[in-house]
Design a protein that fits this description.
InterPro entries: Chlamydia_OmcB (IPR051172), DUF11_rpt (IPR047589), DUF7507 (IPR055354), Ig-like_fold (IPR013783). The chain has 286 residues and is mostly beta strands. It is built from two helices and 16 strands. It is rod-shaped, with a radius of gyration of 39 Å.
């Protein structure tokens, strides 16, 4: 007997790909062989190879038969970088004759690694209509495995950050494993400072990292998010005096001006401004 094993694909790229293996078995001897069928040898696939088709056959000298079997690729096969397979064949000669086993036929199907990672960063505010110091921002990092191999130790990586406060820890710090197409969500909190409000916005950039089964870690393009902190300046003033009435020229009135910043940004050069004044003398300096 001789056997030649082949496959209908030259490479596989994703879990779920189907390989059809063909086994060309030929009776190279001078007697008829019964119960002829391929025999699988070493197989690196982590899934289960389908049954041979057709069932065992009888081959006269010089005759040949093509058998087939299907295999569905697993993610572990892709992570391993390919599938190696070996096959031989068996049959029953007449009488007491012994059939020498044919040399095995090998097929190797590569699975080229194509790691990929994406990150999308967003920001949620508890009260988006109230931009004031002390407001809490929750940053959300959504990471997606866009490649064809499993990534390990996947985590966001903070990049440029214009906030003047301290960003809280990213939770979770990392995920152990992320299969192709899977997503992982991370969060971190930040409390706006008055300097952030005064600056008009807080900008933030993040990238990430993940380790493929082989090769260097992958890093996605950065994702940026900007939180505008619209200025809403405001002042209030309450004027009062230290006396309720005056009775004679020369009486001294002390006016008090309670000025309050009622807006959300810091104000400089704050001073009262006199409006209408019925007094005939001169008001002292503030």
């Amino acid at each position: 007997l001789s056997i030649v094993k082949s496959s209908d694909v030259e490479e596989v790229t994703a879990a779920g790909d189907v390989i059809t293996y063909s086994f060309l078995v030929t009776n190279t001897g001078n007697v008829t062989l019964t119960d002829v069928v391929p025999v699988e040898g070493e197989f690196s696939g982590t899934g289960e190879l389908g049954a041979f088709s057709p069932n065992p056959v009888t081959l006269a000298p010089g005759e040949e038969q093509v058998f087939t079997a299907e295999y569905r690729v697993t993610q572990s096969d892709i992570n391993a970088g390919g599938i190696d397979n070996s096959a031989t064949a068996t049959g029953t000669p007449p009488g007491d004759a012994e059939l020498p086993p044919p040399p095995p036929s090998d097929v190797s199907i590569p699975a080229p690694s194509d790691p990929g990672l994406e990150i999308v960063k967003t920001a949620d505010l508890i009260d988006p209509d109230n931009f004031v110091a002390g407001e809490t921002v929750t940053y959300v990092f959504t990471m997606t495995n866009t490649g064809n191999v499993t990534l390990t130790d996947v985590a966001p990586v903070e990049a440029e950050f214009s906030g003047t406060g301290e960003l809280g820890p990213i939770t979770p710090a990392s995920v152990e494993s992320l299969a192709p197409g899977e997503q992982a969500t991370f969060t971190a909190e930040y409390t706006l400072t008055q300097a952030d409000i005064d600056a008009g916005s807080v900008t933030n950039s993040a990238t990430g990292t993940g380790t493929p089964p082989s090769g260097d870690p992958v890093e996605p393009p950065p994702s940026d998010v900007e939180i505008p902190t619209p200025a809403d300046p405001g002042l209030s003033i309450v004027k009062s005096s230290d006396v309720e009435e005056v009775t004679a020229a020369g009486d001294v009135i002390t006016y008090s001006f309670l000025v309050t910043n009622t807006g959300n940004v810091t104000l400089t050069d704050v001073v009262p401004v006199e409006g209408e004044f019925s007094g005939t003398g001169e008001l002292g300096a503030f």
